[in-house]
């Protein structure tokens, strides 16, 4: 019976994400996790400018960061869920649905990227640069229209795994506790997992753990994106998506980040990635995909169609696996 409650809540949470996204006014646990990470960062690492650095000590502090973040987050998620189900199964399902909803970001990704699409469609390059700066880490002031569109597409493609399929898999397998675990790891990596002067040692543990927890989900996400091409019309090239995925999926410093980006580039027949400016410095990056045509504004909308296609396939596969396992067990 608990599994029925769980998958019911899983489905309700998925639908809530598609309907409501991430309203800015709604308190969100990821923001709380981010504040905890920021506070621990200041307490454990402190100021590094001009300080004598000890790489081994900083790596150890980074491991403490991971522990000090995960333990309270997992305890909180488990305690809230346990208390809700103790009150009543209906309260448990409602609570689990909301927790599931808050771990997914399908509509949020679409909403933010379509803001870029809207500005580009209105030929407002300054507005488009500002909109895309809200969802990417690179410098956007000098991007042309194609560069802005590329940045938005890359964000949708990469976060299709981090923001949708990966948390969905952890939620399906382990419930909200698994979802909170995944998002805590992912948030740590996004905040301290940089190979810059401050975090190259301190962020090692968070970055390595993020690589581990994303290894399988990133590849499943790419496969779902390629599968989606078969059902979304002739604007998407499934064969080329598979070709570019096989060829370019490791064209990134991370073993996971280029998986969905390669599939997306191949599906759309465009070239993504390449050199980008961060904090005024050009960072050399390999290209992903072939420039069969120029990147255009409409590709942002197409990337979102891929995102939604893989989200529905991800949910459907999770439900199908659950039904099969339930049938066998019962």
UniProtKB/TrEMBL annotation:
Single GO MF annotation: ABC-type vitamin B12 transporter activity
Location within or outside the cell:
Cell membrane
InterPro entries assigned to the protein according to its UniProt record, in alphabetical order: Cobalamin_biosynth_CobD/CbiB (IPR004485)
Q: Which GO terms describe its biological process?
A: cobalamin biosynthetic process
Q: In which pathway does it act?
A: Cofactor biosynthesis; adenosylcobalamin biosynthesis
What is one cellular component GO term in this UniProt entry?
A: plasma membrane
Recite the UniProt keywords alphabetically. Answer: Cell membrane, Cobalamin biosynthesis, Membrane, Transmembrane, Transmembrane helix
What superkingdom does the record give? Bacteria
Say yes or no: keyword Transferase present.
no
| Bilayer topology annotation | Multi-pass membrane protein
Functional note:
Converts cobyric acid to cobinamide by the addition of aminopropanol on the F carboxylic group.
* Family affiliation: Belongs to the CobD/CbiB family.
Q: What is this protein called?
A: Cobalamin biosynthesis protein CobD
Organism name: Roseburia hominis (strain DSM 16839 / JCM 17582 / NCIMB 14029 / A2-183)
**Lineage, broadest ranks:** Bacteria, Bacillati, Bacillota, Clostridia, Lachnospirales
């Amino acid at each position: 019976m608990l599994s029925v409650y769980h998958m019911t809540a899983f489905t309700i949470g998925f639908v809530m994400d598609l309907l409501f996204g991430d309203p800015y006014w709604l308190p969100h646990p990821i923001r709380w996790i981010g504040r905890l990470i920021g506070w621990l960062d200041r307490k454990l690492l402190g100021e590094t400018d001009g300080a004598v650095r000890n790489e081994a000590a900083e790596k150890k502090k980074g491991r403490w960061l991971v522990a000090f973040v995960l333990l309270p987050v997992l305890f909180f998620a488990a305690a809230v869920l346990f208390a809700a189900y103790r009150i009543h199964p209906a309260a448990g399902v409602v609570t689990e649905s909301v927790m599931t909803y808050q771990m997914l970001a399908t509509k949020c990704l679409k909403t933010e990227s379509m803001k870029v699409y809207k500005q580009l469609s209105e030929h407002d390059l300054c507005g488009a640069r500002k909109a895309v700066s809200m969802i990417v880490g690179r410098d956007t002031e000098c991007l042309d229209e194609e560069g802005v569109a590329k940045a938005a597409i890359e964000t949708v493609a990469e976060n299709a795994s981090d923001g949708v399929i990966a948390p969905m898999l952890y939620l399906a397998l382990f419930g909200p506790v698994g979802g909170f675990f995944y998002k805590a790891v992912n948030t740590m990596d996004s905040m301290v997992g940089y190979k810059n002067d401050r975090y190259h040692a301190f962020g090692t543990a968070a970055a390595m753990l993020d690589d581990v927890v994303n290894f399988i989900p990133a590849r499943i996400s790419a496969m779902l994106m390629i599968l989606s091409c078969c059902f979304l019309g002739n604007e998407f090239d499934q064969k080329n998506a598979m070709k570019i995925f096989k060829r370019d999926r490791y064209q990134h410093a991370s073993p996971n980040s280029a998986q969905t980006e390669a599939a997306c580039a191949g599906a759309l027949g465009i070239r993504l990635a390449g050199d980008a400016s961060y904090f005024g410095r050009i960072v050399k990056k390999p290209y992903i995909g072939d420039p069969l045509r120029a990147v255009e504004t409409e590709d942002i909308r197409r990337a979102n169609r891929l995102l939604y296609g893989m989200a529905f396939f991800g949910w459907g596969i999770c439900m199908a696996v659950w039904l099969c396992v339930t049938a066998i067990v019962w």
